[in-house]
Amino acid sequence: MSASSLPRPSRRHAALFGFACLALSAPAQAAPSDLFAPETASALVDLRLTAADGEGSWTDGGFGKARFGGDADENLRVRPIPAEADIIWQPRFAWDLAGTVSVAAQQGQADPVDMIEAFVTWKPVPRGATRFSARAGLFWPPVSLEHEGAAWSVADMVTPSAINSWIGEEVKVAGVEATAAHEGQGGRIAATLAIFGLNDTAGTLLAFRGWAMHDVKAGAFGHQRLPPLNAFLTGGVQAPTTRPAIEIDNRPGFYAKLSWRPAEAPLLLEAFYYRNGGDPEAVTPRLQWGWDTQFWNVAARLDLSENTRIIAQALTGSTEMGYEEAGHYWVETRFRSAFLRFSTDRGPVTLSGRVDLFGTREHGSEMGSVESEDGWALTGAAAWTLSHKAKLIVEALHTASDRGSRVRVGEDPRQTQTVFQTSLRLTL
Fold first, then answer.
1. C-alpha dihedral sign at 221, 170, 313, 174
2. For a FRET experiment, which of 4, 24, 103, 332 has its CA 20 to 30 Å from that of 151?
3. Is the pLDDT confidence value at 217 over 50?
4. Contact at 8 Å (CB) between 59 and 225?
């Protein structure tokens, strides 16, 4: 199929897919009390005070690595911000069938309110040592060891790693996922396989902007701003924004995951492979391109004691976009990142620290090596559990990166930035 004959994607595909899964799976005998009882609905509110210096944020169309940036002169800027509010509905259709629908209002997004997840989960009663489960709808792939809960929040920190920031902003799928887990003498081993769509633009931000560290989550209908592009891409080739949840080429993607918990050790090991199957030459009338994106992710969690744990992840992959010229697509980006995180509980307080390394390498015919980047970040946080409905988190993030494309906007390729955030999370 040629790029010009591709159908224009609907902004409602993701929502219709998720809600259709909920509606079709609901059995006739589901009691109204199981669908609309008070315990099926909850709300989360994140109130924040931020102080940031350095370059403007990528959310404002710049190359900044953080969600918040400094003032016009890159000096410290202090702002109180209602960062996020989530409404979560988790109905139960039957004893083995439940749903999740999450809607979020996020500060600074083009769509002030958007759906972030909508899926059904099937968990039958196990009939032996092997358990099966499945889910279908709109969701994030199971990559992150940092996130938890229906609102996909980071546990005990404000900002996720560079890896999981990218997953949150650009790697959201609509599909069907199945998992089989077996408990044996050697421990618990689980295998997951999924077929998905609506993720053809994954890789756009990573190639044009580079890595970032923030807690912005992709919505079903929203779009993200891109930084200033080079002359070729700006000249009627690429739209100034990217849409994370969109189907362009009508080709399915897949991912697979293996995990293992040894019986005699407080350890979790995971290996994950993703391929969206995107056609790099497919493009919509509004200049949203298909990206052929694949990556490997390996992760580990080690509980040193009941109160202390270490989490590590490493991801490497590539993405391609455009037509081939002299053996290269217009954009060919190789990317990699890794982090190590340490957390310890001290009564009602959890102390966490993390170090991130990240980088990209450009080999495309229209994006050369000057667009490559290298960077690192240090993050520290203290989280106080005030009650079962309130948590206070204080976090400091410092990042440094080198990206040649900053020269296009008159900035030094080497930039550093420090962001302080105080977050009050309320569960209603």
1. positive
2. 24
3. yes
4. yes
pLDDT of residue 36: 78
Task: Compute the distance between CA of residue 367 and CA of residue 63 in angstroms, rounded to an integer.
Answer: 16
pLDDT digits (tens, 9 = 90+) for 133-169: 999 999 999 999 999 887 899 989 999 999 999 999 9
Q: Please state which of the ranges 71-80, 152-161, 262-271 shows the lowest mean pLDDT.
A: 71-80
Tell which residue, 360, 173, 390, 357, has the closest CA to residue 272: 173
**Rounded CA separation 297/336 (Å):** 10
Contact (Cβ atoms closer than 8 angstroms) between residue 185 and residue 261:
no
Superfamily of domain 11-427: Porin (2.40.160.10)
pTM: 0.93
CA 377 to CA 401: how far, in whole Å? 9
Phi and psi at residue 191, to the nearest 5°: -130, 135
* Beta-bridge mates of residue 182: 130, 189
Structure tokens at 359: 């980088």
* Cβ neighbours for 49, distance < 8 A, ≥ 6 positions apart: 78, 79, 80, 81, 421, 422
- The helix/strand/coil state of 342 is strand
Give the closest residue to 196 by CA, choosing from 255, 123, 249: 255
Q: How far is CA 414 from CA 67, 417, 425, in A?
A: 18, 10, 34
- pLDDT in the model for residue 418: 97
Candidates 260, 356, 344, 340; CA nearest to 304 is 344
Asked whether the beta carbons of 252 and 197 are under 8 A apart, the reply is yes
Query: pLDDT tens, 172-208?
Result: 999 999 999 999 999 999 999 999 999 999 999 999 9
